[in-house]
């Protein structure tokens, strides 16, 4: 779509397209970016706090990170488990930096599996666009809850195009409470954000 290309150009990044993985286990989903249309809707309806620090689990080529950093100036972290995709994210970080200079520490990219990522005490917004199966999602959410136990703070989980399994798990197995649903009149019923909060 024109908007996708234009916004990538504005940010100085390349995030379009789909990358299917061959030989990966079944629970490791392909790369595809959250649409800019969806991200604009998120910004219109969800209030990020001044101290928001977002982690995108399965950040792919980093679109969510660069877009939110550009629009809000919040620090962001991307965790990516596929090496080729991680290298694409690193290249995007360099080209975004060239076009929109900012302190290096504002955007951190980690090459590791989401389920082993060590959550930092100041990270408080966790973004998921269906990166993996429920088994891995459960492990990551338990890590988030463990971090809350050590450093209690308001935490939000943002699900884009949510798998019903993710939603059910948060409803029935955690203290995260449904907080907000953001949709924008798309005919596809999954085309929405669901936000869950723990506080
Ligand atoms: C649907 S894409 C989402 C990309 C990005 N979050 C966005 O919304 O634009 C899912 C990404 O998760 C990554 N992924 C899958 N399983 C993972 C895991 N266990 N740990 C880290 N990344 C993973 C894939 O390589 C892919 O890049």
Strand content: 15-25%
Q: Kindly state the mean pLDDT as a whole number?
A: 96
Which CATH C-level class is it? Alpha Beta
What binds here, in terms of ligands, is: S-adenosylmethionine
What's the CATH superfamily, by name? Vaccinia Virus protein VP39
Largest beta sheet: strand ordering: 5-4-3-6-7-9-8
Order of helices and strands: HEEHEHEHEEHEHEE
Work out the count of structural domains: 1
N-end to C-end Cα span: 39 Å
Report the helical percentage.
Answer: 25-40%
Uncertain spans, ≥5 residues at pLDDT below 50? none
Shape: globular
**CATH architect. name:** 3-Layer(aba) Sandwich
Question: Which class of secondary structure composition applies to the elements?
Answer: alpha/beta
**Main beta sheet, described?**
7 strands, mixed
Task: Describe the fold and architecture.
With 199 residues, this protein is of the alpha/beta class. It has one domain: Rossmann fold (3-Layer(aba) Sandwich). Helix content is 37%, strand content 21%. The protein is built from 6 helices and 9 strands, in the order H-E-E-H-E-H-E-H-E-E-H-E-H-E-E. A 7-stranded mixed sheet has the order 5-4-3-6-7-9-8, with helices on both faces. A hairpin with an 8-residue loop joins strand 8 and strand 9. The structure holds S-adenosylmethionine (SAM). S-adenosylmethionine binds at residues 28-29, 31-34, 56, 58-60, 63-64, 79-82, 85, 113-115, 129-132, 136.
């Amino acid at each position: 779509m024109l908007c996708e290309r234009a916004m990538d150009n504005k940010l100085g990044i390349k995030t379009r397209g789909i990358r299917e993985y061959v030989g990966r286990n079944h629970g490791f989903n392909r790369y595809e970016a959250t649409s800019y249309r969806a991200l604009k809707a998120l910004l219109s309806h969800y209030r990020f706090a001044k101290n928001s620090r977002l982690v995108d689990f399965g950040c792919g080529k980093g679109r969510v990170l660069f877009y939110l950093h550009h629009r809000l100036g919040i620090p962001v972290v991307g965790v990516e488990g596929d090496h080729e995709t991680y290298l694409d994210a690193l290249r995007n970080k360099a080209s975004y930096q060239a076009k929109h200079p900012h302190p290096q520490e504002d955007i951190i990219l980690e090459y590791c599996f989401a389920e082993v990522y060590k959550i930092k005490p100041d990270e408080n917004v966790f973004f998921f666009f269906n990166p993996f199966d429920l088994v891995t999602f459960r492990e990551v959410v338990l890590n988030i809850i463990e971090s809350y136990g050590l450093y209690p703070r308001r935490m939000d989980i943002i699900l884009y195009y949510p798998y019903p399994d993710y939603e059910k798990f948060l409803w029935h197995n955690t203290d995260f409470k449904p907080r907000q649903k953001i949709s924008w009149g798309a005919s596809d019923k999954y085309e929405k954000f669901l936000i869950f909060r723990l506080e």
